[in-house]
Amino acid sequence: MSKKVGLFYGTTTGVTESIAETIKEMLGDVVDLYDISEAQAEDFVDYEYLVIGCSTWNLGEMQSDWDYFFENLDEVDFDGKTVAYYGPGDQIGYSGSFQDAIGMLEEKISSLGGKTVGYTSTEGYDFNESKAVRNDNQFCGLAIDEDNQSDLTEERVMAWVEQLKKEFQL
Ligand SMILES: Cc1cc2nc3c(=O)[nH]c(=O)nc-3n(C[C@H](O)[C@H](O)[C@H](O)COP(=O)(O)O)c2cc1C
Asked: Domain 5-168 has what CATH class?
């Protein structure tokens, strides 16, 4: 396997895509970007390191292209792969299902052998429930909220990318 990062994102209004492009700018040429609406299960094979980007829609559902792709994940062998997750969500408008999509994807991909990295603290967010929370005070990835905290996005992404450089050992 090559030491490359495959970043697979699904986006409806462009927010997840724009963050994907920022992550690629920060990590550099090691990153290949895939819009999940055009990807296939075999696209995952070459990557030891993966980044999964997915927004949450409709009270706790995955973004529609990821929702459509979801069952194809069963065809991918995630054993030996290290996986990081990020998603945009809306903690005020959808406080009962904030960031559920990355929680569902992380649960699924972990069950297929993927090793999760890129956990972040829930400090600084205000919401009622999220399927993305692990051990009470950590998201299983990076939670972005362009609807309410867009001023924090850049620093959150930058800090997370630095964390990934270490956890991916790039
Ligand atoms: C109808 C609707 C439902 C939404 N449902 C949720 C939700 O359940 N949880 C959440 O965290 N965000 C929710 N959001 C917020 C979106 O995830 C957010 O706007 C995000 O930036 C969209 O990213 P995208 O353009 O990449 O798809 C919802 C937004 C809309 C308009």
From this structure: alpha beta
